[in-house]
Q: What sequence folds into this?
């Protein structure tokens, strides 16, 4: 659509819908274009629905373009729709309210479930992580990380990690969850690791420790030390492969400077206790939530859905896999009831590599300070879990369980 306009010089021309020009009132003051209404307060004249000063009238977009109208409509519709964050917020709020209501209705049932989660943590997890967390803090204060950085510089370059990650990598493979996430945060806070480096480090160092896998899962749950060694070998190899897949392509070496801090034993104990409380709290809470989901029929429904896969249905591992999505220790205990064979052991390797939402959320508690999002960490844990499953299945079939 086109409209005829009067330009400043008085000639008639044709213009598009988007117009911007000035009319000099000193020439056209008696024109019929100028309405008789004058706003005395701000000394403006009205012209065809537009206003201008005594000297000039400026008309912007005299006829609104179709693109602008569409743009405004999109903005209005976007404001009326709920964002993904708002949907997540309302969903989590509703879930929390349901959990609180369930506890009020059956306090004895879920108090016992929380107690069982604490017992599971104290008897199976605490002995495997507390000593390592404590001694790691002492070694860090003595300047051991700086010496390790010089020795492991070249191997770490393969993963796109700076030499400052040497202590982080070694202690993660020895200690297990949540040591990798905790040390990653500390290294990031000290300036020894970038956010992209932190994401790459989590792919390599988020692993369950040998004491937990060999001692708790292998010897205590599956009643087989050999099974424990197979599980740890699969987890170790899966972490290495996962670190290579998610290596940091923007590699920049960050040499560590001497940062020896003679911390008191009391400070090391305090830091260790606070970290352990975070881990224990997550395990207890997720154990209680797992029982709630079982009472609500969610566990059974998800198990039936997973049973649609023939290999899972035939192995009887569906319920254990569902529990493993929430908390790995409970998942491994449930999987062990289906027997000890190559497939069940491979599923257990996948569960321990994934860690469950309990481990993922407690890790993100530390990693959020490094700008590592929940989604990026979850994707890395999924690939690590798949690698662990395949490697463990291959080892179990080759050498037997």
A:
């Amino acid at each position: 659509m086109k409209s005829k306009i009067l330009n400043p010089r008085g000639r008639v021309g044709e213009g598009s819908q988007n117009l911007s020009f000035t009319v000099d009132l000193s020439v056209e003051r008696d024109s019929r274009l100028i309405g008789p209404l004058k706003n005395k307060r701000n000394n403006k004249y009205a012209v065809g629905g537009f206003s201008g000063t005594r000297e000039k009238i400026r008309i912007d977009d005299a006829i609104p373009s179709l693109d602008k109208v569409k743009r405004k409509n999109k903005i209005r519709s976007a404001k009326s729709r709920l964002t993904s964050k708002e949907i997540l917020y309302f969903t989590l709020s509703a879930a929390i309210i349901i959990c609180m209501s369930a506890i009020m209705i059956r306090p004895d049932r879920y108090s016992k479930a929380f107690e069982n989660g604490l017992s599971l943590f104290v008897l199976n997890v605490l002995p495997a992580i507390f000593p390592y967390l404590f001694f790691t803090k002492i070694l860090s204060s003595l300047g051991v990380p700086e010496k390790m950085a010089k020795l492991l510089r070249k191997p770490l370059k393969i993963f796109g990690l700076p030499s400052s990650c040497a202590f982080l990598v070694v202690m993660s493979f020895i200690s297990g969850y949540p040591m990798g996430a905790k040390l990653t945060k500390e290294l990031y806070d000290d300036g020894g690791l970038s956010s992209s480096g932190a994401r790459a480090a989590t792919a390599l160092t988020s692993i369950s420790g040998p004491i937990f896998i060999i001692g708790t899962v292998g010897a205590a749950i599956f009643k087989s030390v050999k099974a424990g060694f197979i599980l740890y070998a699969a987890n170790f190899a899966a972490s290495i492969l996962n670190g290579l897949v998610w290596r940091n392509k923007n590699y920049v070496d960050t040499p560590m400077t001497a940062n020896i801090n003679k911390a008191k034993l009391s400070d090391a104990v305090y830091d260790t206790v606070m970290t352990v409380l975070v881990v224990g709290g997550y395990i207890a809470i997720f154990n209680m939530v797992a029982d709630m989901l079982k009472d609500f029929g969610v566990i059974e429904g998800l198990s039936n859905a997973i049973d649609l896969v023939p290999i899972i249905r035939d192995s009887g591992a569906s319920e254990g896999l569902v529990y493993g999505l929430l908390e790995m220790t409970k998942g491994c205990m449930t999987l062990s009831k289906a027997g000890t064979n190559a497939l069940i052991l491979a599923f257990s390797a996948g569960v321990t590599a994934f860690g469950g939402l309990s481990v993922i959320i407690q890790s993100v508690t530390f990693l959020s300070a490094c700008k590592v999002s929940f989604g990026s960490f979850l994707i890395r844990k999924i690939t690590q879990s798949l690698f662990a499953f395949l490697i463990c299945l291959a080892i179990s079939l080759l050498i037997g369980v």
